[in-house]
Amino acid sequence: MTYQNFVRNLFKAIAASVFIAGIYSHAWADGDTEAKPLELRRIMQEIGKNMQTITDAISREDWALVAKVAPQIAEHPEPPVIEKMRILMFIGTDMGTFESQDELTHRAARALEQVAARNDGQGVITAFANLQSSCLACHQSFRQSFVEHFYGQR
Known about the structure:
Largest sheet: none
Helix content: over 70%
Strand content: under 5%
């Protein structure tokens, strides 16, 4: 191994260590012992607002609004990388379930968008029920444990 390769590998190892240390320090920093809200909570609140908008639009048969808002649910933002690492460390082996439930929600929202674009009122109601069911399944699997773990609430 040449000196140049040694220095390059040493630099990579130091950079990786600093990155990992940064993740861990953010993941377990207590601050003032007050839990900081996860970005995931803000994302879920935004999805909740979108679901309320869709409910209102359905009651008025405003299929164009349903078609406009459904993709905002399907393509919701993701938490930052550091937060994803915290979530992954907490969920552990249940991450596959979490991701598959999230994917079902994405698909259900896309299906809702498509039927709304066709002005298919009965299809919208069925697709929205499927979307609500996918949200509920994920919430029943994870919400309480997230709230208890990340916010210390029961």
